[in-house]
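Two proteins were folded this term; both appear here.
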Amino acid sequence: MSLPSSISFLAPAKLNLFLRVFGKRPDGYHDIRSVMTPVSLYDEVILEKAAEANGITVECDAAEVPTDETNSCWRAASLFREWCGFTWGVRITIRKRIPVEAGLGGGSSDAAATLKCLCALTGLRPSPAEYLSMAARIGADVPFFTMGTTALVEGYGDILTPMPLDTLFYAVIVKPSFGLSTREGYARLKRDVTQRPESGNVPLFPSLTALALSVRNDFEDAWAMEFPEIARIKEELLSAGALAAGLSGSGSALFGLFPSESEAREGLAQMQNRSVETGARKYFVAGNIL
């Protein structure tokens, strides 16, 4: 079987339907407990074999995304090469639609898409344990994106339990003009080592109402004083008809859950006509996609 010389994958954004943050671990990470779900807002990652032996180059149409060794796709390609030893060069092109510093996981999703591309280009795939370990070395959210399904995420993002989420939903995402640093967000939470995760079973959401009641994010309190726009956007989403609204990840994007596609599109139209935050970008998405 001949292998392709180039391939592309779509890289979905994610929402944290709820997110609890606990104490810092000895490795410097914080323990979390979150339900993450992929949504229909995508970057595209394109990989091509290049003539330059062993070289990795990254191009992106968003100026704020680094294209050097700090880029998550670059790190993914480097780790995959370390694992299998391929010698040809790699050219990575990222077409961005997921906003950065938004808590939507764009960089992590792009890295997971890079790993998928490399599996296709080489015809090789690590064992499931090796694959997850490689993903975790790139970043805390990357293992989730290798699964491609809604999951309960625990540990520092490395303990994943697929969830039988039968509840479909539609959402409106609002990304303010400002981004927020994940590192700073964790520092603001001021969690100490005594704050440990509660034990519990995988949550079930038999209805959209049950899902909406679970929406919660600890980072909202961390940013409340300096960025009152977050609370205002949340209130605007609720007044536009959302059953629940909250921050995704460490922010700055917020989402509102709507019971139907038509109500979500109407909610988006209402949000487009409101000047809740100058320069905010707004998106309609379907949730719990596969």
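Next, the second protein.
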Amino acid sequence: MFYTNRLAKSLAIEEQHKVEIWAEATRQFILAKPGDNIDFISTIIEGNTTIPVYMTDAEGNYMLCRNVRLPKSLQRKAEINGNDSAVIAYYQKHIDKLKVTCVPIEVNLTTKQATADADSNSYFEQLGKQYIYYDESQMLQSLHLLPYLQLLLITAFIIIALISIYSTHKAEENIVWVGLCKETAHQLGTPISSLNAWNEILRERYPNEPALSEIENDIARLNIITDRFSKIGSKPTLTHTLIMPLLRQTADYMQHRITGRITINVSCTTNEDCSADLNAGLFTWVIENLIRNSVDAISKSGTINIIVSEISRLRPRGKETWLVIDTIDTGKGIERRKQRNVFKPGYTTKQRGWGLGLSLAKRIINDYHHGSISLYNSELGKGTTFRILLRKNK
């Protein structure tokens, strides 16, 4: 940029010298007597094909110009009518701008010359002084823009590099996620098979034992968890699913496994038969994670309200209706400076845990269900609201 700036300044000085020579040649051309050889002067005048120049009278009024590009709307007028009033006004406007930034070159036509023609001397005395204003050539203007173009290109390269680094990091993260989940599902498979076998043996020996039903329920639950982990990394099957029965079923399951001082309520402000395209196993996993986080945030007693509503959004294809699922607790809340980190892998405020629940929840909702999950609101001492948006089935 420094080199380009120096080059532009050198070119500007060179153009100024060229205009000064051109102005002197113009003066000599005007003052030339009949019979004088003006071929060399004409060559200098015609040699300026790049620098825009304007000639004005002593009062700064437009007289003539050279190498000035007219807008297309005025070009035809200039071709038909010559110096049309609109064309002259355009030239004069540019001259007024140049008066602020450009020191004009004076063309003095009152120089005393040895001539016997009194009328000629009188004519030159009448013309008096004229001024030449000049603008930068197209090349010099482009040279001024070159540093900005270089900055733009450098910025583009930096953005591309950052996107590439982010994409690589994301791909590595995905590989770790998928590998961890697949390995977890694989490791769970062996003890679950063993538990099934032992459960069958116990069922044969103690057919009337009521505890065996609970053991079977927990084994079925382990099978669901294994199935969830095995689906991470592969595209799950989405089916039309009624939201409210699924939420109530999940809330009932969690209610029996938490303290009685915490109450889970499920309500709906829209149609009870509302549905969305879901993978039931993965979606209930998200709801369970949100409920567990709410339970951990409630110190003694409180409530967890799961409220379903709907909103409409305008899209290029038309109006779309989205289901809104708010999970609202009366817990301790999250500090504002920590709120932006809740969905990052490994982030947790608990002494135990890997901090993967909300990160997995975001992956399931955003990537697999094409919806969104966000920390909608949180206030210290009052509670936290997580919001899920899903496209509603018509």
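DSSP finds ten helices and eleven strands in the chain. Residues 112-116 have pLDDT under 50 and may be disordered. These notes refer to the second protein only.
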